[in-house]
## 1
Amino acid sequence: MSPASTRSETRADSAPTPVTLSPFPPPALSGEQAADLRADLSESGWGVEAV
């Protein structure tokens, strides 16, 4: 008998961990900062198209 079949698994065991909301607001970028970041990522080969 395999170990997987001997273990009793419930739906709660396989459910994803709930996301805990952070007390901090998400980071915000100005349009200029976003454009600079996009350019830096593109130059390094990590542009939006690569994701």
## 2
Amino acid sequence: MLPKENLESLIANCGFGQSSVDGGWWEWWPLGGSGKDEVVMVEEDGLTPRINGEIPDLSDATLDHERLSERLATYGLAELQMEGDGNCQFRALADQLFRNPDYHKHVRKKVVKQLKHFRKSYESYVPMKYRSYLKKMKKLGEWGDHITLQGAADCFEVKICLVTSFRDTCYIEILPKDKNPSREIWLSFWSEVHYNSLYGVGADLDFSRHFTDVPTRAPRKKHWLF
């Protein structure tokens, strides 16, 4: 958890966004770039449907990474790098929740199950047929988006604290719907393409030394049943 004084400074010195499905979304993603896939402005009464943005060019990505690195250094945060295999959002969530990014499959399954069972809470924010979206999102390697982040916050009852490389909004909170979060978890989001797990500088990142609960491994099934 980020020290209170660091969090207050982070909010005071850079753009701040907060989200919750029914409570309205504020500055969820700032408007950036010129491509139509990057139009991500949000109205106060709900989300504007969006899809993941295009991969930035090398120059933009470098500037974004420098901006993010400076923010993390300023507020005493360090990234634990996640593999860039399309599962990075779920790996980062798994690392924060279970101290093991290899549980990303379990996290993805739980999030997709949340989105399926509470369809009415999320469907209007998805710019494609909802069934097709769920079918796509359950596949390994499919990038997570802002809907899966909200689904994770709701499913695991956590506040997701997101430090971004965005020029105008560097800190975003994703709050669970109709529930008080049981804990908070910290992720970084770089250049709209990659998530990492965040810890305070000097934190012990040796997984073997953590004894937090991990998901139970169920017997493997031929078909994935919700």
## 3
Amino acid sequence: KRITNPVVLCLNMLNCALNESEQAKIRFQFAIYNANINHWEYCQVSRTILELKTTDDIISLGYKDLSIVDRHYKKNDDVLLMVKIQIIQCDNERHSLAQ
């Protein structure tokens, strides 16, 4: 069965638990496997800054439109997707001596 293009990949955080809210730099990169050459095709790296706080809500970190074509289908019609994600805590000014 073939997929209608484009496909939207959504990267969500399901919950978050912190003592204090803080900013974080988030980088993520989606990839789709090229079954013809046995190699991952990487999308551009996406970046965002997010205020992290304790929540049980779903938080959207980002999305990517992606076209799935014949080279992405394995012999059993599976499609392999991957995401790399990096979350870096930002330095807060509350630890600074500046006024």
